[in-house]
Amino acid sequence: MKKIVIAATLFSVACLLVVAQTKKPVQKTADSPAASIERGRGVYQRECLSCHQADGGGVPHMNPPLAGSTDVVGVDKKKIIGIVLHGMTDRIPLDDEYYSNNMASHANLTNQQIADVLSFVRNSFGNKADVVTLAEVAAVRVGKKK
Ligand code: HEC
Fold first, then answer.
1. pLDDT class of 61 with cuts at 50, 70, 90
2. Is the CB of 47 under 6 A from ligand 1?
3. Ligand 1 centroid to 119 CA: how many Å?
4. Ligand 1 atom nearest 114 alpha carbon
5. How many other CB atoms are there within 10 angstroms of residue 44's CB atom?
6. Nearest CA to ligand 1 atom 9
7. Which of 122, 97, 99 is nearest to 44 (CA)?
8. Which of 16, 29, 87, 96 is most open to solvent, judged by the fewest CB atoms within 10 Å of its CB?
């Protein structure tokens, strides 16, 4: 009897392992860089396009271009994550140009939406840089919001 119980337990554990193994690749596909960039396109169109424009070119002296921006494709992603989370009213030169409009905080977006939209702008309008991950956004936003 004991042997049957042990065999049944081992079988259940083996089944769980198989399920866990087969689930992993599916999650990976959903979170692929390409999928994140594609989701980010929708976020951009809803939240950013009105100011930064469809071609990422911005509006001269009002809203900065995201196309070709040093910060947008920069290695330090914390800066642009912070700008989306907290907005920007700094009036400091961006690539030697000043902009008069204010960017509001977009902290209402989820960490995933922020990762997606920044991955999109880092890989659109001629920009090319690695994607922004959920973990990188979560690290900048204290108090996680999925
Ligand atoms: C109301 C207009 C407006 C909206 C909407 C807006 N922005 Fe901005 N954004 C600005 C302005 C204006 C600045 C510069 C502010 C300054 O110079 O103080 C800016 C700055 C930035 C910068 C810094 C650029 C650089 O070269 O350093 C990034 C990145 C950015 N915005 C991304 C986004 C993203 C992503 C969204 C959508 C989630 C968004 N913005 C929505 C107006 C806007």
1. very high
2. yes
3. 15
4. 38
5. 20
6. 103
7. 122
8. 96
